[in-house]
Design goal:
alpha+beta, Beta-lactamase Inhibitory Protein, Chain:B, domain 1, 36% helix, 27% strand, extended
C-alpha cells in the first residue's frame, strides 16, 4: 500500500511538472480569451489615466511599444463558429492617456 502511494505521488508530481510549461505557453500566446468591455473603458479618463492605471485594470499588455503605447489582443467568439481578434491600443502623451484605438479582424 505504501509503495502504491509513493508511486501515485510520483506520477502526480510528473504530470504536474509536464503540465506547467504547457500552461505557460498558452499564457504567452499574446491573445487573451475575453475582450475588453466598453464598461471597463468607461473607467478610463483621457488626460488623467496613466499606463499603470491601464495595467492595473487590464493586466500586462501583449505589446509595449517604444512610445509607451500598450496593446491588448483578445479572442472574441463569433456566431458563425469562427473566432475574431480584437486589438485595443492605449496611446499616451506626457504620461497620460491620449487615445484609445480599437479594431476587430
Amino acid at each position: 500500500m505504501r509503495d502504491r502511494l509513493k508511486t501515485g505521488g510520483r506520477v502526480l508530481w510528473l504530470v504536474t511538472l509536464l503540465a506547467l510549461p504547457a500552461c505557460e505557453r498558452g499564457a504567452e500566446s499574446g491573445v487573451r480569451a475575453h475582450g475588453i468591455r466598453s464598461a471597463d473603458l468607461g473607467q478610463l479618463v483621457l488626460g488623467r489615466t496613466t499606463s499603470s492605471d491601464v495595467e492595473r485594470l487590464f493586466g500586462a499588455p501583449q505589446e509595449r511599444a517604444l512610445d509607451g503605447a500598450l496593446t491588448y489582443r483578445n479572442t472574441l467568439p463569433s456566431r458563425h463558429g469562427q473566432s475574431r481578434t480584437e486589438t485595443v491600443t492605449f496611446r499616451f502623451t506626457d504620461g497620460v492617456l491620449a487615445r484609445i484605438c480599437r479594431a476587430r479582424s
